[in-house]
Amino acid sequence: MAEQTDLLILGGGTGGYVAAIRAAQRGLKVTIVEKYKLGGTCLHKGCIPTKALLRSAEVFDTMKAADSFGIEMSQEAVVNFAKIQERKQAVIDQLHKGVEGLCKKNKITVLEGEGAVLGPSIFSPVSGAVAVTFNDKSREEEIIVPKNVIIATGSRPKTLPNLPLDETNILSSDGMLELDTLPESIVIVGGGVIGVEWASLLNSLGVKVTIVEFLDRLLINESASISRELKKVLEKKGIDILLKSKVEAAEITDGKVVVSIEGKSPLTVDKVMVAIGRAANVDGFGLQNTSIEYSPKGIEVNEFYQTTEGHIYAIGDCIDTLQLAHVAMKEGELAVAHLLNEDVEPLNYTNVPHGVYTNPEIASVGYNRDNVPADKKVKVGTFNFSGNGKSLVYGESEGFVEVLRDLETDDLLGVSIIGPHATDLISEASTAIYLSASPSEIGDAVHPHPTLTEAIQEAALDTYGIAIHK
After folding, report:
1. What is the pLDDT of residues 398-426, one digit of tens each?
2. Range of the structural domain that residue 234 is part of
3. Among the three residues 212, 242, 276, which one is the final residue of a domain in this structure?
4. Closest by CA position to 303, among listed 352, 336, 347
5. Distance set, CA 332 to CA 18, 31, 308, 335 (Å)
6. What pLDDT does 2 receive?
7. Is 326 annotated in the active site?
8. Same domain, 202 and 261
9. What CATH number does residue 409 fall under?
10. Average pLDDT over residues 90-108
């Protein structure tokens, strides 16, 4: 006999398990089907492991600069990449146990295996029953019949036809996380978030890095001023950046990779990393058995994350929205609220904060000076971290803050930051936009001194031409 449940979630990544917990808190009987591990890409192959590696790189950078702080080291600091990887895994394992504990606490059933969505059948007159094939091959296939389904199947690394991944010489971000030793040199194909983060951490750990980007600048979704500043800083650190460049081929020769770039001399390196984005997982779990509409870009949903079959929802990287863990989490919460017939305010994706964990960090929320609507009259306020006391104390004075003010409504339209701890600082701006604050309210609020947050205050005041320290 088929098992009944209120909600079945395909995928236990950040979006899936958050949706499951929220639904369980609301009294629903919830089942998660996860073929790998709870936490998904973010915890095991994305956000957390890369940030753990970046933290090690940051510590190494600090040690290399110790003399400038008056600290004389008796011997030179040395990178032990095996220990760095061990620390990364320890962080992952601790968080993974935490997610497992949360699911157990909320009485969520977790099935380890793969789920396939069935069309109308003897189990259900409508699509949505799920056949579960367990990782434990001794268990027979099980049919789950839920009242609602949330698809949270995530994404996978993309590649190019002329750059076939072997995860040994030509690697995705997944393969990079499994390296036993650091290469001496690497070409990173792609200057987006994944590419520049890996470029930053590898460069800090002593790897010779070349970024090859097809477009005319790094981080195309950030303002051009942020992109220029990042390029300047990375090149100062010794990273080669080739913009408006196309990789034609990568051939393995004598254990090295020869990278052919259109119009340029070939580069011979130890490894190639392909960092051109991620593709939505929409195949292999039965969507073709339903009337759900989908394409390689993702599953089609409305503003409440319903598919064309109203009792089946989809969230996270498998739909065509921002591929960010915190976005998937919020989408999961909103989908649960909607299926429970609660009032739901659709998510404004423009006002979702996002960060890039390079050194220096980058973060933004709202509009930037390049994508603000043409019908808005805007004043841009800026402040350089070189004028901030805490930045100088830290020895991290590169970068700046940009604040956008609507001249007609006095609303805060957006904030962009490149500089120390930008990914933490952006929360003040995100909260201000959520509360419909004006730049003057940020400027009038008392900020403790000395702190990095004063840079945001000064940039906000600069939109009125009254910054104190500029």
Report:
1. 999 999 999 999 999 999 999 999 999 99
2. 159-276
3. 276
4. 347
5. 6, 14, 17, 5
6. 79
7. no
8. yes
9. 3.30.390.30
10. 97
Q: Are 11 and 151 in contact (CB under 8 A)?
A: yes
| pLDDT of res. 126 | 82
Task: Tell me the pLDDT tens digit for each residue of 309-330.
Answer: 999 999 999 999 999 999 999 9
Instruction: Give Cα 189 to chain centroid, integer Å.
Output: 18
Q: How far apart are CA 325 and CA 46, in angstroms?
A: 9
Strand partners, 131: 116, 143
Instruction: Report the alpha-carbon distance of residue 41 to residue 47 in Å, rounded.
Output: 8
Separation CA 153–CA 156 (nearest Å) = 10
Q: Which two tokens stand for residue 185?
A: 């040199």
Catalytic residue among 44, 421, 447, 449: 449
Question: Does 115 lie in the same domain as 53?
Answer: yes
DSSP secondary structure of 45-96: HSHHHHHHHHHHHHHHHHHHTGGGGT---SS-----HHHHHHHHHHHHHHHH
Residue 261 β-bridge partners: 247
Rounded to a whole number of angstroms, the distance between the first and last alpha carbons of the chain is: 72
